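During the second year of the project, the team shifted from modelling isolated chains to modelling whole assemblies. The rationale, set out in the original proposal, was that interfaces cannot be judged from single-chain predictions alone. As a representative example for this report, we include one of the complexes processed in the last quarter. Its constituent sequences, exactly as entered into the pipeline, are reproduced here:
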Amino acid sequence: MRIGVVTFPGSLDDRDAQRAARAAGAEAVALWHGDTSLSGVDAVVLPGGFSYGDYLRCGAIARFAPIMTEVIAAAKGGMPTLGICNGFQILCESHLLPGALVRNDRRKFVCRDQRLRVENASTAWTSAYDAGQEIVIPLKNGEGGFIADDETLDRLEGEGQVVVRYLDGNPNGSYRDIAGICNEAGNVVGLMPHPEHAIETLVGPTTDGLGFFTSVLRVAVS
Amino acid sequence: MSRVVVDVMPKQAILDPQGQAVHGALGRLGFAGISEVRLGKRFELEVDGELTEERLAEVRCAAETLLANTVIEDFTVRVEAAG
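Output from the structure prediction step:
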């Protein structure tokens, strides 16, 4: 399986996402924001960082990068697509996921090991987990507050589109402690915490994040 | 050439931490009697040629597409009188 990782100007975590893909057993394919082709990959990761300097709004300019035309079409067509942190912001700005990410309610950049509960273990990126499983992976963001109107939040809850939820305190004011969501089909997932930073104990708090990447391999096999 | 101003503001229902931070600072500096501060963005667009209704509609479209995220922000478009 080939997992493409898009590098935008200002991406920081693209190399870590590539490593995580390889650790899970996939071939990592580097994609460039100016590309107009997905090079035949089977899944796409939009990594963390500060695409285009996060000028205007986080992810707002990246959403119009040439490669996003292909990513949006492929995601709508069912390709597994994962947005982590800045990638989550890009998915919301692209309207592939509902809602928006706004500045943390405490006005501070938050960096900590974050406990989460996997609420939905049937998405393309979470099938390696059990529903209700608790994991610890790093969180680092300044604009990670997930917000949407009540109608959208109720729909996300009702349709099982809340994928991961914050435990041990809400770090950024996200509505209903939501840390990550998916689209209706479950192939597009966005989350603020960083599973790619928790794939080996040498440099991460746990190996809990690896499941996101092994999950998508199962999709390819099945 | 005409100047069109697009003002983008966080929606009233949305928490505005930047505005709150400024509000707190104003209070600490002794500027009393300010009950709320909301902080937004102002875009000044220089539009070539005559500013027809069509051109203005394009600017509104640009504001809605890129300049504002209408999930969290409201925007207004107005023509600034030539100085």
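Residues 2-80 of chain B form a domain with the Mth169; Chain: A , fold (CATH 3.30.1280.10). Chain B has two helices and three strands.
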